[in-house]
Write a structure and sequence with these properties.
This protein has 193 residues and is an alpha+beta fold. The chain has seven helices and four strands, in the order αβααβαβαααβ. Helix 1 packs antiparallel against helix 4. Bound molecules: iron/sulfur cluster.
Length: 193
Amino acid sequence: MNRELLREEALRYGATAAVFIKAPSISVEDELVEMCRAPGCTGYGKSANCPPHVMGPREAKSFIAGFEEALFFKLDVEPVLLFSDERFRIFELIFRIAAGLEIKARSSGFKKARALAAGSCKPVFCNDEPCDVLSGSGECRHPSLARPSMEALGINVFKLAHGVGWPIHRMTKVSNPGEISSAMVAGILLFSI
Ligand code: SF4
């Protein structure tokens, strides 16, 4: 499969934009994982795809070193939506794009392709139920959709966005969405030619 078709698939699945980057240009930083800790994210430790249960930055660096290329994709959204319950619908779309791309890439010859999404899979797919991997059957309820996020592995999404010229603004729970000019949610597909 021509890798350009993967980019077209990302747009067809709903991404606003998607660009190829070299996997070695992805920056993984130990301290970024610390930002997942509560109160930064209330989902910390509650899903098998979130720290400290997912691979740590050291393992993530070696994991990413196993790939040559990456397709970085984003969804542009109204900032106010990320402060509302609508955010879960937005994050679900990023999970669906990521998982869809991974499946498409693997079935098209990029056999080891792996995708990463954004945010925690737990509020998107399991709501108030405990993570089944951590406290139940040991199997994910949504293996075809749930993926770790880029930030959970310590990937610096800001650097990636700046590198491809996409505007990105830091947001916290106390930010005023009216003062933020744009917002995006991003994911990535890692693969080798
Ligand atoms: S069972 Fe739910 S919370 Fe656990 S990894 Fe799967 S989707 Fe995420």
